[in-house]
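Record pair follows.
FIRST:
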Amino acid sequence: MAGRLDQIDTTLRARLGADLLARCPDLVYSVNHVLVRFGYTPEPLIDLLDQLDSLLFNAVFTATGRSMVVTLPGGRRARVTEDGLRDLADRLLALAYRARPADDALAGALFDFARAGSFAAMRELVARFPMDDAERACYVRVLSENGQTD
């Protein structure tokens, strides 16, 4: 558990800055609470993504006094966008399924989630699951075209 909390903290600090996390001391634990539900509830990944997205928006909106401007590592200030929050939620949700064994149930959930537009699910499928060459090439192309190869 501590390892995932550290990963959540590191990811949030990189994308939202330490100042925002200082103003939202429970954010790491709130995100983890959503992630823990993966595998224990029948909720599809897209529903968990929506919950994370909403949680992140509310935290940033409140902590920044509605400006949505955060101070990132290195002192650079940036406006947090809807797309940026959705991508952050997607990357955080990946922490929940990355630690799970690569079985058929996870593969099915990830294929459904990838079809719903999750770049993190696509990255996970390409990295860990068998698929035919044409399908793999399609996912790799989509990730590349959208700057999501990291």
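SECOND:
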Amino acid sequence: MSIIGIKEVIRRIKEEKLITGLGGRDFSNPEGTGIDLRLGAVHEIIGGGAYIEADGEAGLGRRKGVETKEIFALKDGEVQDELIIKPGQYYLVQTAETVNTPLDLMPMLYPRSSLFRAGLLLLVTKTDPGYKGKLTLGITNLGAFEVKLQLGARICNIVFHKIEGEVIGYRGQHQGGRVSHGEETQV
């Protein structure tokens, strides 16, 4: 698996809408091999009881997510809200951008170093081929001091790996950018 270069990423953004909703700087002045993504929404966990059950004879493959509430969202053309993250606090955050992942690519997310330099840990993952939607990540403050994070701030970098061979496209419950869910059976 190889990483596709920035010129190919830009071409696919223009021609295939690989990423939509990009900020001006992120599209016009990229660096390296990836594109920076911005903080678009913040969700607070307001209810627990999450579980993930085993598949097969040991379980039915059921799962239940936490209950969340959106507390901030990016606003067009306005001064943006600031999330103050106190030590130990945890939120689910979404990117401002939407990805439209084709079956020949697998995006990987990497936190921007400005976050961990401030004591923030951004929990990221790969994105499966075929996934379409905003990306949901976890963020927590591991430091001793509160950190202000403004909506629209660049929080991570997305890099696309080229896949060789067959894939099965994403068909999970979070397609479309869903942040949390009630009880349901895994796909």
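COMMENT: The radius of gyration is 17 Å.
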